[in-house]
Amino acid sequence: MSSEYVLPTKIFLLELRKKLRLVDFSKRILEKKRDSLQSAIKKTIEEMKEVILFLKRELIELMKFVLATAIVYGRSLRIYALIQKGKLKISVRYISERGILVPVFEVEEFPELKDRFPEGIRALAKKLKLSIPDILRLASIFVKIELLLRELEVTNRIVNTLDKVVIPSLKEKISYVLSMLSEFFIAELSSLRVLITGVGEGL
What we know:
The chain is mainly α. It has a single domain, classed as Orthogonal Bundle (Helix Hairpins). The protein has three helices and two strands.
């Protein structure tokens, strides 16, 4: 190891040991964070499976209903959509999940359909009104998983860097300083022995 960045002194040794303790402590905290993120991802995936199972049949039925309505009303379906003044309003609020802000989508306002619309169009709107909250919940879960995975990747990179690069480097420097101090101590001890021997002979 090159000694150009290392001073073989006791003060520098104390500083290196202090840094090593701090880095090791940081690594342990990040490892706990990593475990917590993995647990949160697993829990969220289970939640997603439940929502998908619940929506699977509902979405298939909804798609069938949409296709049937489109076949019956054809191009006039677009005209009905254009004359509808009310708009679907979706709000976004944020919750903290393991220190990460995760968006939650919610229906704020669903457009009211007037009686002038055909019964088939109104029935489709009712089905959509029932299904959209669950679809938005699924979208929130997908975003949450993506954010958690991204945070987990960053945390893993930092932990690996500390474990494979920073900590070994600090340990190597500490070992180098200890060996140099030992050599200095032995050299000083030898000099002291020579000096004591010389003084004894002089007496």
